[in-house]
Structure formats: C-alpha cells, structure tokens
Design goal:
- This protein has one domain: Up-down Bundle (Amino acid/polyamine transporter I), CATH 1.20.1740.
- It is built from 14 helices and no strands.
- It is mainly α.
- α7 packs parallel to α10.
- 50% of the residues are buried.
- The protein is globular, with a radius of gyration of 19 Å.
C-alpha cells in the first residue's frame, strides 16, 4: 500500500470510527432518527453520506492548508473569538455526553445479551479507554485502523444476512404500518449529521500529521463519508424489516440477531463492541484534551475526570441519552457545519481565482 493510500485509509478509519458508535451500530440512532419515518428514512441515510463526505473533505483540506493542529485553530478564523468560545463549550459538553453514551451502551449490551450487571460492561469499557488514552492520538489512530474495517464489513455482512433471511411476513408488514409523526425525515437527518459533526470535527482537526497533501485530505473525507452512508443504508434496511419488534428495546439490532444462529449473534456482538470502543476513545480523548486546555489541567488529571464523570453520567441509560440528549446538541452542530462549509466554499473560490 502506497504512503498516500495508507494515510487515506487511516484518516477515513478515524472518521468512521468516531461517528459509528454505540448509538449507530446498535440501531438505536437509526431507529430514532431514520426508520421511524419508514422508507423515507432511507433518503435521510443517503443524505447523511453526502453531507459527511463534504464535511470531511472541507475540514481536512482546511487542516492541511492552514496547518491546523487543534479545534480552536479551525474555529477562530471562521467565527471569531467570542463565537468560537461558545461553540467550544458546546462541543466539549457534547464530546462528554457521547463518551457517556458509549459507556452506557457497553453496559446495556452485556446486560441484554448475557444478563450481567450493567456495571460489568461499564467498567470494562472505561478501563480499555483509559489504557488507550495513555498513547495519545497515536492510540486513537491505531485502534480505529484495526477495528473499523472489522466494524464496516461485519456490519454490512450482518445487515445483508438479516435482509436476505428475513421473516417474509414481517417484511410485508413494513410497507403498511408506518406510524405518522409530526417530524420530517430531512430535519431529523440534518440534526443527526450536525450532532455527530460536533465530535467528528474535533478529532479530524488532530490529524494533520497524517495529511500528506490535498488529495489525501479530500479522499480521506469523502471515502469516510461514503462509508458512513453505506453502512447506514444497510443497517437501516435491516431495521425496517423488523421495526415492529424493536421499537422499545435498548439495543434494537441485538434483538434482531437473537432470532438467528449463534455465530451471527457473536459476529454482531463483536461489531457492536468495536463500534462502542472506537467512538468512546475518540470522544473521550477529545473531551479530555478540551478539559485540559480550558482549565489548564494535566493530561492525567483530565483523563481521570473524564473516566469518573463518564461512569456517573452513564447511569442515565443508553436509549435516554440517544433519544433526549443527542438532538439538543444537534442545533449547535448545525450552526457549526454551516459556518465551516461557507468558509470552505469561499476558500475554494478564492483559490481558483488565484490560479
């Protein structure tokens, strides 16, 4: 593999791993933001793939062009000091909330699958995250590079298996029993992208050492976004097939795979654990960094606060965090995405005029 391809693979892997966490791979986010709208929710999953591709390209090229090394270096030229400080506070909180959701999801997974205490999964996840944090950004890249291919291909194969071997009567039900609700699939999709962008952009701004040129930046962002859209479509289709049976469970996809052979259940178990871990380490690392800079704390102190705080907040429960807290931060992310994309388009126009 050439140096450029290797760099693109690493960047795309980090991008995918940051977004595809417990909420996504468990099916909880897809249910709450997409399949609740029936077949129209699939339009939303195509939409997020396009927007994630564009956003990843924009952020990574700006990181390369202006040698950006952290989140504030990106925000301040775009929106000024005051707004940048406000957005940074929102982003810092969202990173922490997402980290807590991953911890809560790991506890819910082991409880639903093995009837273990929820604290077994919580403790296992925080220990794994703590060990990864000690290796700084190299640890984040290493974890994502190894686990994301397993997560991506495992998730798609699992979804294909469910779709192909689905219960025909359940699938037939899908077209006639969608609940009508007052929200729209498009606004829900926008909120989903905007919320996840808060955490993804923070991590992308740390990847300057891996961005060798503009081509790497562009390909890394676009490939990462396309992959996010693809796995979303596959998992969304699988969830639509069983929508009536998974509406009120913590981990919808786990409920589905329990109908199939044990090997399928184990494949999904490892896919979901990988998804939780990649997002937990990315968001937890991002939050610890923000905490360290905001309050001038040492690295170890900020990591300790992150871990302990995550354990306590995870008690809110996985589905509660996804359903009630995620959308709130989506509005802050919407403003951030708009400002970054406008700035990026202006930069591209100026660059062409100077050529």
């Amino acid at each position: 593999m050439s140096k450029n391809r290797n760099a693109v693979f690493k960047i795309a892997s980090v991008y995918i791993g940051t977004v595809i966490g417990a909420g996504f791979a468990s099916g909880q986010e897809i249910v709450q933001f997409f399949t609740v709208y029936g077949i129209k929710g699939m339009y939303g999953l195509v939409f997020i793939g396009i927007v994630f591709s564009l956003l990843g390209w924009a952020v990574l090229e700006l990181v390369y062009e202006y040698r950006i090394k952290d989140y504030q270096d990106l925000l301040r030229p775009i929106m000024g000091n005051t707004l940048a400080n406000v957005v940074e506070i929102i982003v810092t909180i969202s990173l922490f909330i997402s980290f807590c959701a991953m911890i809560a999801g790991s506890g819910a997974l082991l409880q639903q699958r093995f009837q273990l205490s929820i604290y077994v999964g919580v403790l296992g996840m925080v220990i794994a995250c703590f060990l990864t944090f000690l290796y700084d950004v190299k640890g984040i890249v290493m974890v994502n590079t190894f686990l994301v291919p397993i997560l991506f291909f495992g998730g798609i194969l699992l979804a294909l298996y469910v779709i192909i071997f689905r219960d025909i009567t359940v699938f037939a039900w899908m077209g006639t029993s969608f609940r009508k609700i007052r929200y729209h699939w498009f606004s829900s999709s926008v909120l989903y992208v905007s919320y996840n962008s808060l955490t993804a952009i923070v991590v992308l701004t740390t990847l300057l050492p891996y961005i060798m040129n503009r081509k790497v930046a562009r390909r890394g962002g676009i490939i990462g976004g396309i992959a996010l859209g693809m796995i979303g479509i596959f998992l969304g289709t699988a969830l639509l097939c069983y929508r009536g049976k998974i509406e009120f469970v913590e981990i919808p996809l786990l409920e589905i795979v329990m109908y199939y052979a044990p090997i399928i259940q184990w494949i999904y178990f490892f896919v979901l654990i990988a998804a939780m871990f990649t997002t937990a380490v990315s968001n937890g690392y991002g939050f610890a960094n923000c905490l360290s800079k905001l309050f001038s704390l040492s690295k170890n102190t900020s990591i300790f606060i992150t871990i302990i705080g995550g354990v306590f907040v995870s008690k809110l429960g996985f589905s509660n965090i996804v359903k009630k807290v995620y959308p709130v931060f989506g509005y802050g992310g919407l403003f951030e995405i708009s400002m970054i994309l406008i700035y990026f388009f202006q930069y591209k126009i100026k660059s062409k005029q100077l050529q």
